[in-house]
Amino acid sequence: xxxxxxxxxxxxxxxxxxxxxxxxxxxxxxxxxxxxxxxxxxxxxxxxxxxxxxxxxxxxxxxxxxxxxxxxxxxxxxxxxxxxxxxxxxxxxxxxxxxxxxxxxxxxxxxxxxxxxxxxxxxxxxxxxxxxxxxxxxxxxxxxxxxxxxxxxxxxxxxxxxxxxxxxxxxxxxxxxxxxxxxxxxxxxxxxxxxxxxxxxxxxxxxxxxxxxxxxxxxxxxxxxxxxxxxxxxxxxxxxxxxxxxxxxxxxxxxxxxxxxxxxxxxxxxxxxxxxxxxxxxxxxxxxxxxxxxxxxxxxxxxxxxxxxxxxxxxxxxxxxxxxxxxxxxxxxxxxxxxxxxxxxxxxxxxxxxxxxxxxxxxxxxxxxxxxxxxxxxxxxxxxxxxxxxxxxxxxxxxxxxxxxxxxxxxxxxxxxxxxxxxxxxxxxxxxxxxxxxxxxxxxxxxxxxxxxxxxxxxxxxxxxxxxxxxxxxxxxxxxxxxxxxxxxxxxxxxxxxxxxxxxxxxxxxxxxxxxxxxxxxxxxxxxxxxxxxxxxxxxxxxxxxxxxxxxxxxxxxxxxxxxxxxxxxxxxxxxxxxxxxxxxxxxxxxxxxxxxxxxxxxxxxxxxxxxxxxxxxxxxxxxxxxxxxxxxxxxxxxxxxxxxxxxxxxxxxxxxxxxxxxxxxxxxxxxxxxxxxxxxxxxxxxxxxxxxxxxxx
Length: 698
Description:
By secondary structure, the protein is an all-beta fold. Helix content is 0%, strand content 55%. The protein is built from no helices and 43 strands. The chain is globular and about 90 Å long. The two termini are 42 Å apart. The mean pLDDT is 93.
C-alpha cells in the first residue's frame, strides 16, 4: 500500500531490499545503478525471513558481484522528449585476492508536460546520476568479504494535476463583488466562477500547461555502505553477516497543481507549492547461520535496525490573480516584509522565508530473531515441509515540534510493539513437473504516527493472516509452464488515511485562515478486512526461439467502514465512510511475446519483444469512492544482438524500443474532493516514449 515517504513515522506495506539490506526510504532508488543479477518479487506476507513491513510482499534486488576478471559492458541511448542515458559496468582484474567492480549511470528526460513560464521546469522531468563501487576479498578459502558504497542523485518534477471538469454538481455560479463571492438570488450555496485562464482538460493529457507556474527540481540524494561477510564453517554450515549504513536527503518542490486545484478569487493568491525537506539515516545489522543436514535445510538469524528521520514542510502560494482574472503574477519568493516575523501572510517559498506548517522527527528501532527450515522425510522425497517463525520487538519515539510556524508541545509519539510471525508450507511433488502446495503465513506493517496530523496522532500496527494454495507445473519437456495460486488474507487494524486540503479561499465572505492547509489523519479500522485473490501465470514455448507469456490477477478487497476523524473538515467529521485499498485493480491481465532467431554469421541474433498490460479501474484515495480509468499499455523493442565486433569476443547490441506504443492516455490518480469548490482533478500516465539504445559487452 503506497504512502508518503517523506513522513517520519510511517512505514510501507511492501519491503524493498538491496543485497539483503532493507531500505527504510525508497527515494532515489535507481535499479540500473546496481547492475542487477536478478529481481525477486516475493508475494504475500514475508514476515518470517524479511520481517516487518512485508505484509504485502517483498522486492529483493540481488546485484552482480565482482568477478575478478576484466570485463563489463557500456551502453548509451537517446530518445524523444530529449532523453538520453548511459551506463558503465566495469570488472577489474583481481589483485592479491581482491576484486573490484565499478558501476555508473546517468538517465535524463525532459518534461512531458511543458511549463509556459520562462526559466521554470515542466512536469515529469528527471535527471538521475549515480555511482557504485564494490569490492570482493577472499583472503582464505571459505571466507568472502563483500564491501560496497553507492551514491546517487535524482532530480525530478511531479506529474501535472489537471482540472478534468468544472462544477460537476451543477451548483449556481456566483459573481464577485471585490473579493466577496455573491450567490445568485441572495443564496448561500454556489460555486466560484472558473478562472478565465484555466482550461478544463477533460479526459486528455495536457502537453502544455495552460498557465506557467513556479516549478523547481525536487532532489533526492542517497548514499549507502554495505559490508557482507560469508564464512564456510564446514561444507554444510555457512555463517553470514550483513552490516549497512544508508542515508536519504530529500528537497521537495511540488508545484503540480498550478491553478487547477484552487478556487478563483480576484486579487487572491493561488497555486499551492508543496515544499518539504527530509533527512533520514539508518543502520542495520543481520547475522545468519545457513546450513544443510540430511533431509533438512535451515536458516537461523538475528536482526537489528535503527532509523532517524526528520521532516520540515511548508505550502506557500507562489501566484496571485490580477483583479480582472485575465492575468497573474509570481509572488512570495521572499516574504513581503523580509525583516518582519514570518507569518501566514508574510512568508515566501525561498527556504529562508518558509512558514513552517510542520516539523517532526522520529527514531525507530527494531530487534528480531528468526528461523526457517525445510524438511524432506527419508524415503518420501516428494514431500517437503517448510516451517519458520520470527519474533520482532520494535519501538518508535518522536514528536511534532512545530505547527503553523509556532512551537508545539504535547504531540509526542511513544510506540512499542512485539509479535511473532509464523509460516508453514506443505509442498508435494505429485508427479514429474507438478508441485502442489498449501501455505499459511502472517506479517505486519508497523504502527506509528501521521506527521500530517495536527496532533501527531498515533496508530497501531496492522497485521495479516494469509492462507494460500497453488500449483506449479511444467509440461511437454519444459515447453509449457503453468502456475496457479489462490489466497485469502484476513487483515486486522487496517491503516487508513483521511486527507483534507481546505481549498476555500473565503468562508462567509472573509479570508479563510485554513486556506490551502493540508491535514491528514491515519486511523485503524475496527474489524477484519478480507482480501481474496487468484493469480495465474502461463509460459509457452511452441517452437524454438518463440516464447509466449500470459498472466491474470483477480483481487477483491473488502474493508469495514470507519468514521472520518478530521476535525478541520466539519461537513464530513464523524461521518461513517466506506474506505478502499488504493492502486489495486480488481482485474489485471498481461501478455508477452519474445522471439529470437539467428541472423548472418556468428552468434548474432534478432530479438523481438512485445508486452501488453491491462489494469481495471482502481481507487487512488482511501476515503474516496471515485475510481480511475482502466488502462491498456503496450511496450515493445527490436534488437540486433551479439554482433561480433572483434576477434577477442567483444560483442555489440543495437535496439529500438517504445513504451506506451499506442500513446494511450488514462487517469491513474483522481480526486472528487473539490467538486463543490471547483471540480475534479486528475493525473495522467506518461505519453509514448521511444528511443535507440546501443550496448557493447567485453
